[in-house]
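Chapter review: from sequence to fold.
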Amino acid sequence: DYLARCDRARGRVEAGKTVRDDLARGYQYALAKLPPGAQSPSLDGMRIDPDGLQCLLDVQNWGPQQIDIDETFNPQEGGRSAIWMKVGQRAGQLSLRVGNDVAPISFGEDVGAASWRKPRFARKAGRYPVAIECGGQGERRSIPLGMMQVGNGGDAPPPRSRQPLGKLDATAVAGTADLSSPAFELLAGACIDGRMSDATVRSAWRAAGDVAMVAVEVARPGESPVLWVESKARDSAETGPWVVDGHRFVFYDATTRRLLGEYAVRMPACDP
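The token string follows.
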């Protein structure tokens, strides 16, 4: 009888192993192993997500985090510049974004690197967001990593931005009565292929009704929005030098997540 009780206890431990692995690793294999008799209406809304570890990167350190304008930083073969990363666990096809420049990450045992030939973010002084990206078009995930500081090479004056040839327009994709049309002002940018890009933009908004706080998300064309700023119902904020033609600004009630409005900016033409 003692041995029989031990066998039953061992069976219960083994039966829960898959569930414990699901909770620890996110595989969710246990849902797939449910027998037909265990199905009930309460499970109809469940979804098996087999790719819990498809995107993962543990970054312990990275650099350089500050460079000079037009510097070939961390020089590589062929004249390319690279950002290095000290990494732990990783999974998925991962890329590194600095400003509007994206490059795939190559890995060694515990290091990773992304490289560019003459990256655009190195051409102009400013602070550029650095993020790990993973996923397909329209479902891309972004994990902020920090900021890249591009300096002016000692005491040299910062380069002057080329003057745009028109105003910065914004097209309403969606709107509500609780948000007056936000203002978008082009502060600086680079002239690339005859159109302003890598621009710094000031946005001002004013929400009405019972909206206390506004959250603003931003997205490049074809990508999912990520949080940019959360502030008062009536306020303004300046972006970094990363706004491109077609960039979307999505405004929400920060408390209820109710959509207040969505606008796409149109960059003016310029003389290269």
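Two observations follow directly from the output. Residues 38-48, 153-160 have pLDDT under 50 and may be disordered. The radius of gyration is 24 Å.
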